[in-house]
Design brief:
heterodimer; A: alpha/beta; TIM Barrel; 4-stranded antiparallel β-sheet; 16 strands; B: alpha/beta; Elongation Factor Tu (Ef-tu), domain 3; Rossmann fold; globular
Chain lengths: ~300, ~270
Amino acid sequence: MKTKTPPKMAVNMGRLKLKNPVMTASGTFGYGEEYAGYVDLKRLGAIVVKGLSLKPRLGNPPSRIMETTGGMLNAVGLQNIGVDAFIEEKLPFLRKYNTAVIANIYGETYDEYKKVAKKLSSAKGVHALEVNISCPNVKNGGLSFGCDPKIAARVTRIVKDETGLPVMVKLTPNVTDIAVIAQAVEKAGADAISLINTLTGMSVDLKTRRPHLKNITGGLSGPAIKPVALRMVWQVVQRVSVPVIGIGGIMTAQDALEFLIVGAKAVQIGTANFINPRATLEVIEGIINYLAVHKIKDVNEIIGTFQS
Amino acid sequence: MAGNIYIGEIIRNEEIQEDCFLMKVKIAPSFENPLPGQFVMIRIAGLNDPFLSRPISIYSFSRGEESCSIELLYRVVGKGTQILAGLIEGSQVEINGPLGNGFEIQTVKKNIVFIAGGIGIAPLSLLMESLSRKTDCSSSAMIIYTGFQSAFAVVGLDKMRNLCRDINVCTDDGTVGKKGLVTQVFQKDMKKFTPENTSIYACGPKEMLRSLAKILNKNKFDCQVSLEERMACGTGACMGCAMAVKDKKGALAYKRVCADGPVFNLADVIWEDK
């Protein structure tokens, strides 16, 4: 049974209003144009673009990916065209669509985060920043910025001081207690928190006894990681009051709804785009159907309704 | 990027040589005419293991009034192709394509040489058919050098018999044709060709292409190669299928085999040290 008016799908991520809670995950949707032939981009809640660095980045040598059971490993090494080329060449295309554009940024030093944030803040058509703190901190022996609550907080503060845009911080799951990091970035001023980035993994070629990935280790993504991601989102929503965005192995509307029910304000669809370019739209339609069938008028009515 | 997603129906899926299958898929007429060298991403909808779609180059294409069909020639190399090989007629597959850039046909030269390794013959076969239909190619001689492991692995030659002036088959073990690697056999014949009168198109295993690069680059032959790499998306988003290639300034760049290729100029490819 369907209700007469379609359910309301808009959600607020702090100051940022989204037409629905479904975004693309950084690094899985290019700069939008790669999927424009498959997906009507203006139907998306937001497009989170591939991670941007101050200078163009070559990325890791191949092989960069390996399939795993229910997922894949990647060690792309954040290959990207750099923030200036993004603003000049990619942003004009994205401005044509009436959809929120979230620029994912990263640096190897605090100063790089600061400079990338500054450049994007004055660019027309960027609606928010997502800060990737999973990358290695060159000055700290290559350990990820996101592994230490103090360092994670410092990156957050530096970006916040540089921009008037809403700032979402994307957390790595490769830590002992992700909620501690979440609290630290919230205290440092993060407007929203997204999680999880990929889980570090590896895979061995039995013929050569070498790693399948040239980088040896890579980030695991896909449906295999969904239960871990869901558990972490549930833990984090109980400890912070800013909006939390759930990411990790979401393939279907059912998966997305689980994240919303445990308290995520929105979700990001990542690796699913690779095998099903229309995954984002199918998730949006599936959520609308679920709400209609259950006679729920507004998606916000199910967010955080988890019964433990 | 011309790709789109189609539900295809398998109308033939037959083992034509040991571990080598020919799959014919019926597909909606809106499927664009593929260029030789283009590929599709194929998967069984809803299946999460194997997780990723498989990139397979288009072997042949035909268009009817109400539907069109593509043929894929593939070797069973792992879990994904094994499952594809088990599909019966009437099964459905999800096809994303046609994807990537095809071979570029520039000035037509006197000799058009194809160098294929194993299943690499598939995209070259489509190219050969397409060239044979071009009137300005009618005075060119098409010559193929094709290498296989052994007699049991020889595929794809039937169609070529009418199109090629010379078919040079070689096998690693000498069970059919000349014994030796296809690159060695070609090298012995190389005096017959000059860069001015010959275009070369190649597809095959990396080791073969690496040897070919050594032979051809110092002689300045123009050669386009179709490369293969593990892929996740096939549409240029994931950056997973990177290949080291010289950019316009000659500097190292990692290009996407799916969206920047799969066809590259052999002279631009940077081969990793062994």
